[in-house]
Amino acid sequence: MTPATVRRWVRTYQNALKLHEWQVALECVPLAQLGTDETLGRIYPHYATMTATLEVATARPDAAVKATLLHEMLHLATADVCRVVRELDDQLPPGQWALLKAVFDTAEERLVVRLTRAFGEKG
Ligand SMILES: [Zn+2]
């Protein structure tokens, strides 16, 4: 999958998810750069500037890359909700914060996986 094709898919998902206010910078990276776990992509939203950097491993089958792009764009769609939860970091005692973060992160990931599958992508 060429970088131009990857950019086109990011725009397609950005339009489908009505995330027009975000500027998404795309970085096609080697899989090894994303770590040793199951990570195939990452997105880093910057709320104040409404910009995000999306890293994706593209040396994989097209369908897998598309699923990763949708998955990461869905994380961007949940960014506002995630930010609200992150604001509690300074408000809760560390033990409560750690529990909330773990439960929330798992629930958010499950939602993103569910929505990726609902779009017909295997993510
Ligand atoms: Zn995820």
What does this structure look like?
With 123 residues, this protein is α+β, with helices and mostly antiparallel strands. It has a single domain (3-118), classed as Zincin-like, CATH 3.30.2010. It is built from four helices and three strands, in the order αβββααα. A three-stranded mixed beta sheet has the order 1-3-2, with helices on one face. Helix 1 packs across helix 2 (62-77) and helix 2 packs across helix 4 (94-118). The longest helix is centred in the C-terminal third of the chain and has 25 residues, at 94-118. The two termini are 17 Å apart.
pLDDT under 50 segments (min length 5)?
none
Order of helices and strands: HEEEHHH
Which kinds of small molecule does this entry bind, naming each only once? zinc ion
What is the third-level CATH name, the topology? Zincin-like
State the strand order across the main sheet.
1-3-2
Proportion of residues in helical segments: 40-55%
Structural class: alpha+beta
Architecture per CATH nomenclature, i.e. the level-2 architecture:
2-Layer Sandwich
Domain count: 1
Mean pLDDT: 92
Percent of residues in beta strands: 15-25%
Write a compact overview of the structure shown.
The protein is α+β, with helices and mostly antiparallel strands and 123 residues long. The protein has a single domain, classed as 2-Layer Sandwich (Zincin-like), CATH 3.30.2010.
Map the helices and strands.
Layout: H1 3-16, E1 23-29, E2 41-46, E3 51-57, H2 62-77, H3 79-86, H4 94-118
Parallel strand pairs: 1-3
Antiparallel strand pairs: 2-3
The site of zinc ion has 4 residues, from helix 2 and helix 4.
